[in-house]
Amino acid sequence: MGTTGAVFALIGSFGTQEILLCAIVALLLFGGKKIPELAKGLGEGIRNFKDAMKSEDKGGDSGKKP
After folding, report:
1. What is residue 45's three-state secondary structure?
2. What is the SS3 assignment for 60?
3. 11-57, pLDDT tens digit by residue?
4. How far are the Cα atoms of 35, 40, 41, 45, 55 from residue 27, in angstroms, in the given order?
5. Residue 35 and residue 27 in contact, taking contact as beta carbons nearer than 8 Å
6. In degrees to the nearest 10, what's the CA dihedral of 53, 54, 56, 61?
7. Dihedral angle computed from the Cα positions of residues 18, 21, 25 and 26, in that order, rounded to the nearest 10 degrees
8. Measured between alpha carbons, how far is 25 from 13 in angstroms, rounded to an integer?
9. Distance of alpha carbon 16 from alpha carbon 13, whole angstroms
């Protein structure tokens, strides 16, 4: 079983009702003003991670000591 298959086996598949329920719970927990800030921070974190992975693939800091 591949990695994707293992993830789906653990969490199952999300339907419309599950996604709607998660959105309502997030709205109740964080409020309408805080959610865009959280999404922005998450997006910046993902972007930084991708940039770091690309720079490592291009021969950047490989983590090896000279």
Report:
1. helix
2. coil
3. 677 788 888 898 899 889 888 888 889 889 999 999 999 999 998 87
4. 7, 16, 17, 21, 36
5. yes
6. -100
7. 60
8. 19
9. 10
